[in-house]
Amino acid sequence: MSIKIILADDHNIVREAIGVLLDSESDMKVVGESADGRTTLELAQKMNPDVVVTDIAMPGLNGIGTTRKIIAKMPGVKVIALSAYSDRKFVFHMFKAGASGYLLKDCVFDELTCAIRAVVRNEIYISPRIANIVVKDFIHQSFKNDSLVFYALTDREREVLQLLAEGKATKQVAFLLKISPKTIETHRLNIMEKLNIHSVPELTKYAIREGLTFL
Q1: What pLDDT is attached to residue 142?
Q2: Can you tell me the distance from the alpha carbon of 62 to that of 143, in angstroms, rounded to the nearest whole number?
Q3: What is the CATH number of the domain that holds 172?
Q4: Residue 123 maps to which CATH number?
Q5: Is 110 exposed, middle or buried, given 0-12, 13-18 or 19+ CB atoms closer than 10 A?
Q6: 10 and 37 in contact (C-beta within 8 Å)?
Q7: What is the predicted pLDDT for the residue at 215?
Q8: Residue 215 domain-assigned?
Q9: Of 78, 53, 49, 55, nearest to 9 (Cα)?
């Protein structure tokens, strides 16, 4: 039986190229493609894939938030990050969200197929080029406390923070999340209180620094 895969990347040419290559593997089948996190989540719930290969930098709901939601709703699905970012912060956030693998976009195709097969076997796959980042941080426990504050936020608060940081107005955020503008304002105030941040510009800088948005 083929490994069912969903590809998530906001660059069409990247998805199409990887999709063609994966479909050429005898034991793999791409069952869905998406350009943003929310569509990826909907596809995963509809198609019940074995593996989701996702970029981190996606609009609306980034790969970190998408991973967290997929794992919460479908714990049997494996998620692999395929990212241009090798910074330890992104690696940490993805694995904290529940990812089973992390590769860089300039890897060779054989590494991606190796990672897919590994996570299906319930193994963790980390690109050798970033493995030292994980090992060093594990040994020295060197993550900054202000990075960990991010996890004091609820899933909904993270969504609101990303959308606000992407420049969307309160009414736009309310429309996208299907809740009232007043509720969005309440979330914003709660976020600022939890993070000890006192203005929207500071909030935006925080979101960018923590890898929640990629403006």
Answers
A1: 47
A2: 21
A3: 1.10.10.10
A4: 3.40.50.2300
A5: exposed
A6: no
A7: 42
A8: no
A9: 55
Q: Total domain count for the chain?
A: 2
> Per the structure block, which two tokens stand in for 62?
């980034």
Q: Which neighbouring-strand residues pair with 93?
A: none
Residue 113's domain comprises: 3-140
Q: pTM for this one?
A: 0.70
Q: Can you read off the two tokens belonging to residue 141? A: 């426990």
Q: What pLDDT sits at residue 137? A: 63
Successive 10-residue mean pLDDT values, the chain, 215 residues = 95 94 96 95 96 92 93 95 87 91 94 96 90 65 53 85 88 92 93 87 80 59
Tokens at residue 79, please? 């998620």
Q: Give residues with Cβ within 8 angstroms of 187, minimum separation 6.
A: 156, 157, 160
Same domain, 85 and 9: yes
Helix (H) / strand (E) element for 167: namely none
For residue 9, being part of any structural domain is answered with: yes
